[in-house]
Amino acid sequence: MSQAFYATGRRKNAVARIYLKSGTGQITVNGKDIKVFFNRETHIDHIVQPLEATSTISKYDVDAITKGGGQTGQAGAMRMGIARALAQIDESLKTTLAKGGFLTRDDRMVERKKYGRMKARRRYQFSKR
């Protein structure tokens, strides 16, 4: 397998474009190493979950381009993109990835602010007198 497999992952307002090719397990995000780009170990663990579940962590190199949102959203988007790319490569991994919940889009978004409110639901302090 010399070609790169492409998949897109989304979470909150973040979008991750994932290119998966055979290699040694190196992960780069926007041209930087994953440990440089993500400052929390939990984000890195979150991203690597689909590779660990399918025991392919040292088989593929991951090259990701992320845009929008924050670090947590981008990590979630990368996780989904990696899972989708793995499902493309080997159809038999799809059941393992689906059971782990890696192929399901997390559609939770930030609720919009309403007029007459401080935030989406938080009201201004009520004063009787």
Sheet having the most strands: 5 strands, mixed
What would the CATH topology be?
Ribosomal Protein S5, domain 2
> How many E-type strands?
5
- The chain-level structural class is alpha+beta
Rg calc: 18 Å
Share of residues in strands = 15-25%
Spatial order of strands in the largest sheet: 1-2-5-3-4
Q: Tell me, what's the shape?
A: elongated
Whole-number average pLDDT?
Answer: 94
Explain this structure.
The protein has one domain: Ribosomal Protein S5, domain 2 (2-Layer Sandwich). Helix content is 33%, strand content 22%. The chain contains 4 helices and 5 strands. A 5-stranded mixed β-sheet has the order 1-2-5-3-4. β1 and β2 form a beta hairpin. The radius of gyration is 18 Å and the shape is elongated. It starts with a strand and ends in a 29-residue tail after the last helix. The relative contact order is 0.22.
Task: List descriptors.
129 residues; alpha+beta; 33% helix
Summarize the structure.
The protein is an alpha+beta fold. Helices cover 33% and strands 22% of the residues. A five-stranded mixed β-sheet has the order 1-2-5-3-4.
What's the structural blueprint in terms of helices and strands?
Elements: E1 5-11, E2 14-22, E3 27-29, E4 32-33, H1 34-37, H2 41-53, E5 60-67, H3 71-89, H4 94-100
Parallel strand pairs: 3-5
Antiparallel strand pairs: 1-2, 2-5, 3-4
Helix pairs in contact: 2-3
